[in-house]
């Protein structure tokens, strides 16, 4: 047998364990190796076919599964390495000329290393995933908070027909005290179909009402109302609720870190929905996440200026944006307003949803896992990931609509709270219907449920033109790039 034949049989043995042993006359060993390999492949195929892919992906978020994957791939890698070495030995390369021995020995060593690489990558991926999940999903910070109970397998949603998750973009930074939630979107997901409504609330919503009977409602009976700042600005808008609650533990009997809980309850009360969990992402964490998936293709309808001195520019046109440019496109208010910014944020979210396909996530998993560590805070229980992951896969292929509570749909200075709840209720109801139409109309309410505060009544009422349908497709009006899969 020449050097070429030895190398050929080694390569075949790396793909079909036992092939080299059969060629070398180790018949029994070769048949056992091939039989075990075939049985393992058939067993793996049967396991995949008999289980839902989403359920498998969800199970893979559990600590025990990740540990098993990590240990299992390391063991398999070592076994495969040993298999290549033993296959080389049984082929008796010592009968070759010295030059042939050097060549085959070198190539066999390289091949042994190469076959270990995929197993090492799988083990490292499982380890990175485990570490990222442990970093993100920690014990709640609220005092007296007990760990969430394990979800029941027969009904992990505890009777919920929908899951409502508050997605927040915060501006926390080293030179800034507290967190202002400048991006607030509530994703309401049908647990059976995955159909989702994304409710976008403006940062400058005034006179925010708190649920009756809560500490904040007792403290602000006429709505969130504070004196003007020294520079004439307002610190009593919706985006300040988290920061204010965190800064005033005396309102809650001395309890610390009440901001997330208060904002969740406030937005839930505003929309007439129960918010189950929240996730707050730092703006630069958002940028790193986009970089981790390789950027997003966005149609920028006109130049977007940003920066302290207007030195930054995201040029108009359809292109793939890196994380920093996508972040500034989503949040810049220079020569613009909050409502235009909310629309751009919706376009970026839609682009991420449609363009972050499973292949992209898999090939860039380590980068994504590291980027998700920038997630500042979440109260999603770790055990719920097993069920949220398959639900997220449903959402990707389901109907996703968007409702933005901006003028002329509502007046942010004088919000009609009943109307907001009517719109939210109708959008959720339409989303629950099979093959629901994207558009939904809202019937205006005769009067708000709570009268405005005296300070607000002195303000000039905004003139509102004819109202448009508030419920739209998530990527409607975002250009063709956001619809790419």
What can you tell me about this protein's structure?
With 485 residues, the chain is of the alpha+beta class. The protein has two domains: 134 residues, no CATH class; 315 residues, 3-Layer(aba) Sandwich (Aminopeptidase). 46% of the residues lie in helices and 12% in strands. The chain has a seven-stranded mixed β-sheet, sandwiched between helices. A two-stranded antiparallel sheet has the order 5-8. A two-stranded antiparallel ribbon has the order 6-7. A hairpin with a 5-residue loop joins strand 2 and strand 3. Helix 1 runs antiparallel to helix 5. The longest helix has 39 residues. The chain is elongated. About 7% of the residues have low confidence.
Please summarize the sheet with the most strands: 7 strands, mixed
- For the termini, the CA-CA separation is 51 Å
Beta-strand portion reads 5-15%
Question: What is the overall silhouette?
Answer: elongated
- Overall SS class: alpha+beta
Please compute the radius of gyration using only Cα atoms. 28 Å
CATH architecture of the largest domain: 3-Layer(aba) Sandwich
The number of helical runs is 17
Briefly summarize what is shown.
This protein is 46% helix and 12% strand. The protein is of the alpha+beta class and 485 residues long.
